[in-house]
Amino acid sequence: ELRNKIENLEKYFSKYKKQDVIKKLEEVKDKLNNQEYKIAVVANMSAGKSTFINALFGDSILPAYSHATTDCPIYVYSDDNPDNNMAIVEFTDGKETIELPKEIVQKEIKYYAQKDDDSLDNKYKNVKKIDLHWDFHVLQNSQKYDKKFILIDTPGPNNTDEHAFKHSDITRNIIVNEADMVLYLFDYGQIDANLESSENNLWGLIKQRKEQYPNFEVFFIINKIDKAFEDNKKIPNIISSSSKDEFYTNIKKHWLYHEKIAITKIKNSAIKYGFNSPKIFTVSSKFIEYYRNKDHLNFDHLDDIEELMKFFKNIFRNNWNSKFQSYLGYKTIEKELKKYLKMDEQIFKLVKRKKIKYKKKCKT
């Protein structure tokens, strides 16, 4: 709609040879064509944001642990050109911006992303942001479009230590002032503790952004959905199974029982806070990552993924693989993300994408 208005104005003014106005319109169009579509991944602490992003892109680059990991925002630029692989690190204490070459990114990025208290070397401290450019396996920006999407790994805003204000302030600013879209992650095991909205929590911030920007999109994602297996096994019918075959038959009979309960809880909260038709997904980021990297896993992780696959084989027999893929959830969310981004691209002109150049003052 905006592009049509600009083109109509251009035709109108060109009739009267208003070259200065036409030039201004061209500048507006160029700005539109070079937009960066920012997708913020947000969640409360340790819900698995970094693991989710690794799983989504199919490459384990971002640091991910069981405790709070990301201390600064990481802007992820994904494309299909390995020559672009690098990380750009900016600081808050006057240190010069540095460029990490692709050979050391995987080794070094975790140190720049961690809390200052966890760093013994001053060179890793006071990081403002990290721009990660990487040739990921999935969800790549196309070379034929100027407009590109960027995923932002944000700090968990509910940290309770001295970093709490910093993390909360960073995430608030990204949601309210930068993000065009949010992927809001929930830990399946912590859903009940994260259903209420307040002015300063994640619900409150995305609600505020939605009110200011009606086209703001949110995907609600329940991570660690595999934890529901243990809840489902406590269903009386399953507990009372008298044989192995009956056990798996009863699991199949009650398939997705607690998963559906979790989805309903998120749906009800989303509707309550103004998202009338919420898009809700379930994923198991850990097992997506294991599955996509199964040829390079250590023995413990390989045992974990093989045990899960065996579980599905026992329940669904010949149909196990499609059920397994569906449960992991990555195909559904990738499809919806690609669909959403493609639909959005209709208002943008197809042009050759420009490469970003960095100043020579960056040092390794």
What does this structure look like?
By secondary structure, this protein is of the alpha/beta class. The chain is globular, with a radius of gyration of 23 Å. It starts with a helix and ends in a 20-residue tail after the last helix. Helix 12 packs across helix 13 (320-328). Residues 343-364 have low confidence and may be disordered. It contains 14 helices and nine strands. The longest helix is centred in the C-terminal third of the chain and has 18 residues, at 299-316. Helices cover 44% and strands 15% of the residues.
Care to give the gist of this entry?
With 364 residues, the chain is an alpha/beta fold.
What is the fold's blueprint, element by element?
Blueprint: H1 2-15, H2 19-33, E1 36-43, H3 49-57, E2 74-78, E3 86-91, E4 98-101, H4 102-113, E5 127-134, E6 148-153, H5 164-178, E7 181-187, H6 202-212, E8 217-223, H7 228-232, H8 236-239, H9 244-253, H10 257-272, E9 279-282, H11 285-292, H12 299-316, H13 320-328, H14 330-344
Sum up the overall morphology in one term. globular
- Number of E strands: 9
Q: Given the structure, what is the number of helices?
A: 14
Q: Alpha-carbon distance between the termini?
A: 45 Å
Question: Structural class of the helix and strand makeup?
Answer: alpha/beta
How much of the sequence lies in strands comes to: 15-25%
Largest sheet: 9 strands, mixed
Helix and strand element order: HHEHEEEHEEHEHEHHHHEHHHH
- Radius of gyration, taken over Cα atoms and rounded to an integer in Å: 23 Å
Which percent bin holds the helix content? 40-55%
